[in-house]
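To the team - S-adenosylmethionine complex, inputs and output below.
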Amino acid sequence: MSAVIDQLGRPLGTLRISVTDRCNLRCRYCMPEEEYTWLPRSSLLTFEEITRLATTFAQLGVHTIRLTGGEPLLRRDLDQLVHSLVRVAGIHDVALTTNGLLLAGHAERLRAAGLHRVTVSLDTLRPERMAEFARSAHHADALAGIAAAQAAGFEHTKLNTVVVRGFNDDELVALARFAHERGIEPRFIEYMDVGGATGWRSDLVFDRTAILERLSAAFGPATPESKHADPHAPATRYRFANGLVVGIIASTTAPFCRDCDRARLTADGMYYRCLYAQDGFDLRRPLREGAGVVEVEQLIRTSWGERRDRGAEERTELADRGVLVQLEGLKADPRKEMHVRGG
Ligand code: SAM
Ligand code: SF4
Ligand code: SF4
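Output:
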């Protein structure tokens, strides 16, 4: 089987697999509501089913897998899935995005299973802010998770921070220092209007220019790094004179759809060609109805071949930009939520 290219010339290269829709945080930009409709447990793909689909995606060009959620470490025995995925032919890189709360108890086993990289999401260094913003008193656990990842020997670890104006924009320098001191690359993400971000407003976006200004005031001028090594990477990286390198993901004001090689798989087996896509493709049904590898492969090949998605870029063209999906729409189809689709 050969690799597949979409209508805009973009290959299929990365697969983001959401392994659960559950989460132990309630970040205001992702899960702000009191109640959610959860995917039925019987609908969740087994590890064997996920590995079969990953194998098919790999045959079509996927080389990188990122495990996400919800909070992926809530999925029991995740290291067993990692163990299988790193053995899939063509997969060179298996990474995990986690809020870190449970990482201390899992880091060593994940490393032993062959996980290549970890990204920890941390929006604040202040426990009281996390309590207010993510409804959790477990800030110390997130810090312990980061330390455990370091102790387990993970390299190229990243720290993801969603920057929300008036909430944590005053911590950018402290977060950058915190990461840099630990040999971790800080990455600042613009607040996106996607999925469960029902509280999104354009004035809450602290954009790339503002992020760079804030960092330059502390660290001096920044030089952009070439994207040569990975043209499909969502972050633009900037280097400061003290050696600090910061990634900025400007998904809201300067999206990078033209280079996007990412497909998404929900925990219940829906495949999406874009984070912003309104419709996906059910891969669980054919899998459970006994379809062969060739049939599932053909479905993915055809749909990727027809792909024209550039969701974030289209949002920037709107004159009056609000949230992508209203609350009623999210309730009617939870797969439109970021925590279900996998951020
Ligand atoms: N729970 C894990 C975590 O937080 O790392 C993995 C899933 S989470 C959906 C993946 C990433 O999406 C996180 O880094 C999170 O900060 C980001 N994210 C969620 N909602 C977002 C939004 N509205 N704008 C920008 N990034 C968002
Ligand atoms: Fe926060 Fe990640 Fe949970 Fe969303 S899925 S609420 S970003 S920890
Ligand atoms: Fe890719 Fe869609 Fe995000 Fe654009 S909006 S970068 S096409 S996932």
